Amino acid sequence: MPLWDKVKQELDRAGRAAQDALDEGRVRLEAFRARQHADRAAQALGYALFRARTAGSDLDAQAYERLSATLARHEAEATKLETQLDEIQGRRKAGYPDEPGPSSGPTPEPPPPSADTVSPTDTGTA
Description:
This protein has 126 residues and is mainly alpha-helical. It has a domain at 10-96. It has helices at 2-54, 61-94. Helices cover 69% and strands 0% of the residues. The protein contains two helices and no strands.
């Protein structure tokens, strides 16, 4: 049955790759839309400020708070989605291990030797 195990592993790996590709497309689209909303909010804030200045007044605090809060919300959403997109792309670039699990991560480096251990190349003379 080792052949079937290998086939199952390859199918699982292909499934993870396909799912990540779908997730990447979905997140990419959501990030694009969030960025468009942020751009529209920034444009609305700029227009409101321009209209107020051309009328010879300042933008009232309530309108500024509302418009800037909308812009901040959309910016935060776009940033969150772009971070998710970077994570998905990182997984895809790293590849897909045969066996998912805690042992599939990078191996930790061994600790440095302590001062009281002797190296095999150490002759004892200084």
